[in-house]
Give the backbone structure.
Amino acid sequence: MSAQVAHQLGLGPQVAVRPAALGEQAVRPQEHIGLLTAGQESITVRDVAQTRGHVTIIIIDSRSTRAKRVRETVRVEISPKDKFVTVYGRKPVLEALDDPRLEVDKVLLAEGARGPAAKEILDAAGRRGVRVQRATAQRVKVLAGNGRHDQGVLADVVAPRMRPLELALRDRPRGVLLLDGITTPANVGMILRTATAAGMDGIVVPRRGVASIDPLVVKSSAGVAFRAPVLRCATAGEAAAQLRAAGYPLFALDAGARESVYSFSLPSHAAFVLGSETSGISDEVRPHVTGWLAIPMAAGVESLNVASAAAVLCFEVVRRRGCPRESNLRTP
């Protein structure tokens, strides 16, 4: 039954199943999610909980001729790209290891790496109790995604707020930002910093078509990328479709739009897409856009840098809704 249920849930091949412990409950109870049929048994999925590194789906209320109640926990392994920020190069790795606020999952060091630089990394990892794995230089290059600057070392840093978009949508985030075709690392980093500071509930950074969250993005974000509420999916088009299917209006910025970001009717839940400065909103995302907004500008200025536009948009949204839940403002 477990394999059939996992297949119907669309969990993919890398699924481990174990019986739920007696009295075990989800840490985030949700409303009724759906009814599945596996073999002779109808199974109601009610509770979903997320823990580090995997998603736990509690399946309860199995109506069966053999048992009145069946409970199982299906653990779905999430891609490392959806739970870690990978930094590469000697200096970025050492900075991550030396920062007590960051949790480093592991360090990958090229087999041929020797000398003072390698020793410094090994010593830093040892002080933090971080495991160091050896791999071929080619393997490190592939995983780093930057063969010219990896310097034979990378580190996976835990991003506690990073998760797949489809899971985040179950929590009904109020404000979501979607990046579409933004390939300049500096812009992505500044947007992550700005949107996080404004209190946006999620920033969708697709795995394809947008700059990867690498050391350049981390540097541009002033380190905020590690704790930003990053939501992952394959492409911006896929994200737009998921957001619309979940009932979110999708607003896009356009200098020629008739509605202003300062006066449009802001729904309780909404998503906003930012396109690239050269080509704007992609053809894959455009059909899903439900409204176009403009940032009024004076003195004949036609447009803003995408990171600047993101700042205007995010802080206007939060101005309308009130200060972020964790604000630096002190009440008298």
